[in-house]
Amino acid sequence: MSSYCCGAMVGGKPTWTLVAHAGTVCHSHLIVSLVHAHYINQGILENKKLSVNIVDESWLKAADRMGVISGNKEDKSEAFSYTIGENGAPLIDDAKISIECEMDGNYELENFDNFICKILATYADDSVLNADGKIDYHVFKPVLFEFPTYQYFKVGEKVGNCGKM
After folding, report:
1. Does residue 25 register a pLDDT over 90?
2. What was the pLDDT predicted at 26?
3. What pLDDT does 20 receive?
4. Of 79, 27, 26, 25, which Cα lies nearest the Cα of 53?
5. Average pLDDT in the 119-132 region?
6. Residue 38, exposed/middle/buried by CB under 10 A (0-12, 13-18, 19+)?
7. Per-position DSSP letters for 67-101, written without gaps between them
């Protein structure tokens, strides 16, 4: 699955965490699953806003660090240059694609908050868009996280067309 670095406001400051469990659940919603103890959860629950910033190799080291240090022990607000999105979520400036979301619900399961997130806005840097304004995955290569080996991989070459194999 892709690597995501999520952001939310806690106490008026942004905080960040690397997310291993996240993905699309329908065209309009994502799911972000985080252990209850994560510091960022309180900001998501309180403000109901978060960003999902898609990690690429250019800022992987900084994103990886957000999964190693705890916001409960260290202030992560200055880890990235950021912009507040039009809906109030902090967006990582280095992310070539960021998705601003609103928490639509929380399904608690086995010590995890599973945030159902309505997509409010998607921001993409012009450098990763093709002539039609769509993401060009020949240019943008998100990092994939492989569980349980804890390894990162880059998106590779096209291997086929859906429904035409």
Report:
1. yes
2. 96
3. 86
4. 79
5. 98
6. buried
7. TTS-TTTS--TTSS-EEE-TTS-EEETT-SEEEEE
Q: What is the mean pLDDT of the chain?
A: 95
1 — pLDDT class (breaks 50, 70, 90): low
For residues 9-26, give the mean pLDDT.
95
CB 8 within 8 A of CB 47: yes
| pTM, full prediction | 0.95
Which are the contacts of 54, defined by CB distance < 8 A and separation ≥ 6?
A: 2, 3, 4, 95, 96, 97, 98, 99, 142
Tokens coding 104: 């639509």
Q: Residue 47 and residue 24: Cα distance in Å, rounded?
A: 21
Cα angle 148-140-7, degrees, rounded to a multiple of 5: 60
Which amino acid would we find at residue 24?
T
Nearest to 14 by CA among 68, 66, 57: 66
Spatial neighbors of 117 by CB under 8 A, at least 6 apart, are 29, 30, 31, 32, 50, 52, 101, 102, 103, 104
Q: What share of the chain is helix, strand, coil (3-state, %, to 5)?
A: 15, 45, 40
CB atoms within 10 A of CB 132: 6
